[in-house]
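Q: Here's a chain of 882 amino acids. Please give me its 3D structure as tokens.
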Amino acid sequence: MLTDLLFRLRALFRAKAVDRELDEELRFHLERQILKYLDSGLTRDQAERRVRMEFGGLAQVKEECRDARGINLLETFLRDLCYGLRTLRQSPGFTSVAMVTLALGIGATTAIFSVVYAVLLRPLPYKDPGALVVLNETTPKVGLVSVSYPNFLDWRAQSHAFTQMAIVHNDEFNLAGIDQPEDVSGCAVSPNFLAMLGVRPLLGRDFDASEEKPGTRPVVLLSYHLWQSHFGGDHNAIGRSITLNGRAFTIIGVLPAHYVSMEKTDVIEPIGVWATNNPEASDRGERGDTVVIGRLAAGTTFSQARAEMQSIAARLAQTYPAANDQFGVALQPIRDAFAGNLRPAILVLFGAVVIVLLIACGNVANLFLMRSTSRAKEIAVRLTMGAGRGRIVSQMLVESFLLAFSGGVLGLALAAGGIQGIVRLIPSDTQAASNLSLNGVVLLFAAGLVILSAFVFGLSPALHSAKADVQSELKESGRSVTLTRDQNRWRGILVMAEISLALVLLIGAGLMMKSLYRLVAVDPGFQPDHVLTMELGLRTAQYEKPAAILNFWQQVLERVRPLPGVEAAALGSGVPLADEHSRTDITIEGMALPKPGSFPHPDVHIVSPGYVRTLGVPLLRGRAFMDADNESAPLVAIINAMLAERFFHGQNPIGRRIMFGRFSANVAPKWRTIVGVAADTKMYGLSNPARFEVYVPVRQSVASHMNLLVKSRNDPAALTSAIRIVIASIDKDQPVYGITTMSQLERDSVSTQRTTLILLALFSTLALLLAAIGVYGVISYSVAQRTHEIGIRMALGAGSREVLRMVIAQGARIAAAGILIGMVASLGLMRLLANQLFSVSATDPPTFTVVAAVLAFTALLACYIPARRTVRVDPMIALRHE
């Protein structure tokens, strides 16, 4: 009757797939109700009819069962939680080691993920940022270059793939009218720029369309930071004036605090204001520090937009060959533009910490396997008393979660300290440095790591424990228990995996170390020691005429050179390693004219006499510039060795002539006589190749922006205050900025490689330590298991060396297998590191050999310690060992 009731209730609610456990609970529930009625005096038939009346639907029965089941599950979980806490507390040594191991892995991974999130994943504060694209012009010889303003206007008029386009011209401004003049970063933008990004001013208004035209009145938007620091967050700042480059600008708005851009931005002006004061705005061949940002039209793919822009570039090259021949267009998602060249290094480091976390989980899994031997009888008793194997697994997983949670909490503390350390390693003015923190997303990632780690290191030991042979465990009758052959094999596999992963990390660190060593050994082409550099930009109306500019530079040199401690001082429009450049085509007298776009295109440095001496650039031929090389003297130039070798083919170029631009029979050429050949300098970082360079005297090619270089007998930074006073005595509104030493510039040029190496070396050392601990644990436990056997061997005459060799051989086999697997894996994985290496192959044999030898020695040492301890045991004691 009861069975018939169950089937009919199932059919009523189409619940044919009710699981067996719920069926058992339902059967128990119905039987209990029937028994209640039987106790009250009813017959069996009466009781069953009463039950059918009361439980006319399966839904009610199931709900009651589910409620009871939920309560039981919660109670079971709480009991498991309390039990797990007690067992972990009873094994403080195991708990502490496992918790610290997990904390190291989780903490390191969380810290690096904060960098991954800040640079690669953090949502940009723009409307639909996935549709935003950064556009640059490109040439076969140079690569990415800036966009000319006339070309941008044609792009915008002819493109259909983009709903909007805006140009951004990065610039610097002199902020005056305050106690200490400052250099502030800014840009000139198309009026639709902020609206296209979906950014609205916090205060005031955005630019309007009329402010794109030249001649518009000077207005400006302030960054939130500048508004706070210079106006105290005063809402009445709107409508007030601010002095930039000696001109009064009206403040019309303040950007929101969350606004970010690819370059540091303090002020934004409309492109019309920039075009009013810059003749290059109408010159198609002039390409300043300018990029274009566009928003893709709905349904337009990235490849379609790229094809359209290449077609437009080809038409412009045909229409304006003198300015656009061989110029193309490069498109890049705005996220990639923000990440820049940091993406490969960050992904390498994230891969490294994931490996460290896996090694840590492997170590903890081994600890759990060893611990399971002491709990074998407990688990066997529980199985005998009716506990299901699923309950055993769930109980041990709860313990794993408790351990992972504790390690995660400690790991978060380590991650917080690690993030602060990373911030100190990266440049402070980068977006990544300002965004690194333990924010909600990073904390959520850490929580996910805790859960994942608990399953990674806890599931396998739990399954092994649940498979225990109850009868054999209970028959041991108090004797010590050992791991099964399957468990020992699994422990060996875990250690092999740890060794393999550690080898991959060590090889990566070794390659980076060798790469950095070769990189810092590169000759930069100058002597950076004791040289101070600082920037000055003459941007006000009083310096519109060349004579005023030259007079200022002359006064600076005349007053700085006599300062105490100054050995030499000079001026240069750019300095090596600063990634500053001004390039132009040149024509070499007597050579066949190349096609447009194929002219030599060197960096042009405008320098004062003494530049070569101050910076220590070797002069290979000819002479340096002199005071006599002024505006009334014949035009002269110095070229670098690379240009001399490429175009003069080993002949002496002294006395030969060049001119800037392309020769035209309709224009009188301005030939410059080559008077010297200087060594090549590294203008764009030690890892980048040298380029063609041409030096010209400042009195023959006036520049309003220069770098002041000062060579000192002692610490050059000590001269900063004195130089500031000198500059203020010449022009109190002239800011001095970009103050650093050439030695610091040299260090900064390899900062990405150095930071990657430091972190990779740290993770590799941690991985090596964890792998050694894993080997030690396996061999130590194995020796403990074989103590009785070893005692018999020694009693039968086996010597200490033979026993020592036997024990070490066991660990050596595991280490050798792990090293072999790691070597094979590294051959493939190191190719991912290739773009981070300098002058080192990703499969460098010496590095692979040395790292494998170091790891092998470490593993053998980890085997030797427990082996040496074993052979010192008295054989009689060993024979009594159970």
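Q: Can you summarize the key feature?
A: The longest helix spans residues 389-425.
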